[in-house]
Amino acid sequence: MRGIALLCTATVAALPALAVSSAAQPDNAAKRPNAERHHPKGDETIQVFGHRGAPGYRPEHTLASYELAARTGADHIEPDLVSTKDGVLVARHENEISGTTDVAEHPEFADRRTTKVIDGEEVTGWFTEDFTLAELKTLRATERLPELRQRNTVYDGRFEIPTFQEVIELKRELSHELGRRIGIVPEIKHPSYFRSVGLAIEPRVVHALNRNGLNHPHAEVAVQSFEVGNLRWLDRRLRVDLVQLVWSSGAPYDFVESGDPRDYADMVTPAGLREMSEYADWVAPVSTMILPRDEEGYLTEPTSLVADAHEAGLRVVTYTVRAENAFLPADFRTSEVDSAYGDVFGFLRALFGTGVDAVFADQPDIAHHARQEWEPHSA
């Protein structure tokens, strides 16, 4: 579909056929005409994506975190999706869960600790694909960054691991209560790995969106991935936005596996962005690819990435804005205390000034207030 594939045909063909449910559509039934693509418009409101919910205030990827994000101004909430042993999609940033749950405190699961190779890296811990959903539901979420977000630790042990379906239902309930449509932007985590162990995430995402009536262009849904082949596969089955995530180094792991020599840097050249627009609606670069930093952490001149992406017909959402000094450019740090808040409003103004269409934020209320201040200024 739409031009030369970024991934070899053999790799794309390796994605499983969509056979999870009779509700699923045939390969080309949901194929999106070009007219359905969203093109950048200068008068559109900057969007706020609640990165893993509102993890600046609640442990990430919990219903409490997603709810708080929506209530404090996020336009979209972001569940990262991994699979259980019995094929249920749950929200965790990684399939290794020792850093975000109390699994290590459960002696009944001590023998599940193991070492695996995930996307070429050796990882030791406990993995969602080794637990049934019922077993995972006995665990409780914990704060991932306790040294920086000590106040969040008061919520340790209070929230379950949510399923993708539970997040969709929360999105629906909050949209009704708040009187505005709350979007959802799931990220497919480690797609090549999960496909290799027989737990492909993509067909289950399609099934979930179909079942919930969310597979249409106005559903306020965008599906993300750091890989490419799975987005091309989804482009033939979904009518929602697709988001190509890119990083400042390295390459999509499906490129690595297939021997494709290109990396993320190649993908964000003008030619690479034009090719990306054949299957994606958004490009999502880390903020340093838009506002680079020098060796001392200070901002240098902006790159042309935002303008190049818009020229290719892509919207741009950048990640991740966090209020703590530890994450801010040196220009906006207010002290040497990593956990203290810096001038995050100043950093957001700098990002907005590059023309980005959206930002991922750990404190979505701050991003919401910053865009309210910015938009009259930019009119």
From TrEMBL:
Q: Which reaction does it catalyse?
A: a sn-glycero-3-phosphodiester + H2O = an alcohol + sn-glycerol 3-phosphate + H(+)
- Extract one GO molecular function annotation from the record: glycerophosphodiester phosphodiesterase activity
UniProt xrefs under InterPro entries: GP_PDE_dom, PLC-like_Pdiesterase_TIM-brl
Q: Name one GO biological process term.
A: glycerol metabolic process
What are the boundaries of the region Disordered?
Answer: 23-49
Q: Which family does it belong to?
A: Belongs to the glycerophosphoryl diester phosphodiesterase family.
Can you say what this protein is called?
Answer: glycerophosphodiester phosphodiesterase
Recorded source organism is Actinopolyspora erythraea
